């Protein structure tokens, strides 16, 4: 059953509107991850094509050190993904491709559209474990060709990533189904009206 939003308080979503179920949010992210995978494949294809051009050496230098490799990865992958979520969830529709497929919407208090600034905070916090994992990977000596055994610092970093992911997933089952990044941004994920009507048929 859909969880109903409790009676109104000083701030919060409108009462009586169903909150998105945890499984629906996970499935929506899975759909969005397919979108991300298509983008990643296109970037990989461009990189492969550049290997056959005179720009090969310049392209290779982007990945020669941990610092330049992580910076390149951030600019070509993490940042576009964060902006994809931030701009779509901060739009009047409040939904990425995955959320539209599942009939979900990100809102602020009173079911108002989430302001872009808060949507940027939400998306940046959401993908913090992603970027932290990349940071750990690029600090492994020899990565990615011949990685050496992990140091205590790297293990600690990966443990922090696992803890954050566990916290994010676990908080989906909180009373208002707000993750940590929802709380930081003051956002809620609800079932949109069109989806509710379809369920009632």
From TrEMBL:
Pfam families: RDD (PF06271)
Transmembrane segments: 26-50, 71-88, 152-173
Key words of the record: Cell membrane, Membrane, Transmembrane, Transmembrane helix
Record localization: Cell membrane
Topology of this chain in the membrane: Multi-pass membrane protein
Gene Ontology cellular-component annotations: plasma membrane
Domain RDD: 20-186
PANTHER family recorded: PROLINE-RICH ANTIGEN HOMOLOG-RELATED (PTHR36115)
Protein name stated in the entry: RDD domain-containing protein
Lineage: Bacteria, Bacillati, Chloroflexota, Chloroflexia, environmental samples
């Amino acid at each position: 059953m859909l969880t109903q939003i409790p009676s109104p308080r000083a701030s919060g979503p409108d009462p009586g509107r169903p909150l998105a179920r945890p499984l629906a949010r996970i499935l929506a992210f899975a759909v969005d991850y397919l979108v991300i995978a298509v983008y990643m494949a296109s970037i990989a294809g461009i990189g492969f094509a550049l290997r056959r051009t005179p720009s090969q050496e310049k392209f290779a230098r982007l990945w020669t050190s941990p610092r330049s490799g992580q910076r390149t990865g951030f600019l070509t992958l993490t940042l576009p993904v964060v902006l994809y979520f931030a701009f779509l969830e901060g739009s009047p529709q409040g939904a990425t491709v995955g959320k539209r497929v599942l009939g979900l919407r990100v809102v602020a208090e009173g079911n108002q559209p989430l302001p872009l600034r808060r949507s940027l905070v939400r998306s940046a916090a959401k993908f913090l474990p992603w970027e932290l994992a990349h940071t750990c990977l690029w600090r492994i000596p020899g990565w990615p060709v011949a990685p050496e055994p992990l140091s205590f610092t790297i293990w600690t970093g990966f443990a922090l990533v696992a803890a954050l992911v566990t916290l994010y997933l676990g908080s989906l089952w909180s009373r208002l189904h707000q993750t940590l990044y929802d709380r930081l941004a003051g956002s809620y994920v609800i079932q949109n009206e069109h989806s509710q009507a379809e369920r009632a048929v």
